[in-house]
Amino acid sequence: MFTSYKAELRKLLPSFIHNPQLHAKWLNTLSFLENCGARKIASCQHPTKVKKTMLKHAAEESRHAFYLKDQIKRIVEVTPPDYSLDSILGGTASLQYLNKLDLLVAKYLKSLGRDPHIAYILVTYAIEKRAEELYPIYMDILKETSSSITVKSILLEEEEHLAEMEEEIEQIFEGYQLAQEALIIENKLFSAWLLALQNAEKAQ
Description:
Layout: H1 6-17, H2 20-43, H3 52-71, H4 91-112, H5 119-144, H6 152-170, H7 175-202
Helix pairs in contact: 1-5, 1-7, 2-3, 2-4, 3-6, 4-5, 4-7, 5-6, 5-7
């Protein structure tokens, strides 16, 4: 079951946007997560049996990562050179979020004797469900603060990714039940990540 954190995000994100240095790190953090997603998609591709949707998804995630990092120059003069801990928010919780989600979903599938290759679909579904909540809130706050940053194009593509994963899940035996477990796993990880972000904001 998906757990919403709209209220917490609504409270937290304005503090990032009103502080250029924090906002730059927030954008860099999102860029890291998008890039991490692209790398994971590439790593789980079969050498030959690769669907067009997977290629499209990987390409768009990479483009999102570049776009978000490129937006940083609109708010600070020096863009973080990489994704090192001092250049992102959330510390190791950010670095490990997607890796842990991938590992835990794969472990869950293994315990059921299910095909580990469907982990890509379940993990992507869980991530896109979270993106479906996070990006609209971020976009609304950007508009409210008249920020020069925009994430509308990313939001539209993430919504398309989610729809594609939902179609894939419908073709998997007991796919809905498996997807719900992936959401439960993601919720625990997102809750820990959100706490790390809140602590980063308090430390300023």
